[in-house]
# Entry
Amino acid sequence: MKLINQIKSLAHQIKILTLLSKKLTTQQKNLSDKLNYIQTVSDDIQDDINKMKFKNKPHIDRIQEASNRINAELSKYRA
# Structure
C-alpha cells in the first residue's frame, strides 16, 4: 500500500514538474520577446540622442567659443 501511494505521489509530482516546465518555457519566450522589444526601443532612443547631439553641436561650439572669449576678456581685468 505504501509503495502504491509513493508511486501515485511520484506520478503527481512528475505531472506538476511537466506543467511547471511548460510554464517556464512560455515565460522564457515572453521574456525573450520583451527583451527584443526593449532592445529595439533602446536603439531608437540612442539614434534620437545621436541626432540631437549632431543638431546641437554647432550651437554648443558657438557657446564654447563665446565662453572662451568672455573668459579671455575677464582675465585681462583680473590681472
The helical segments are 2-78.
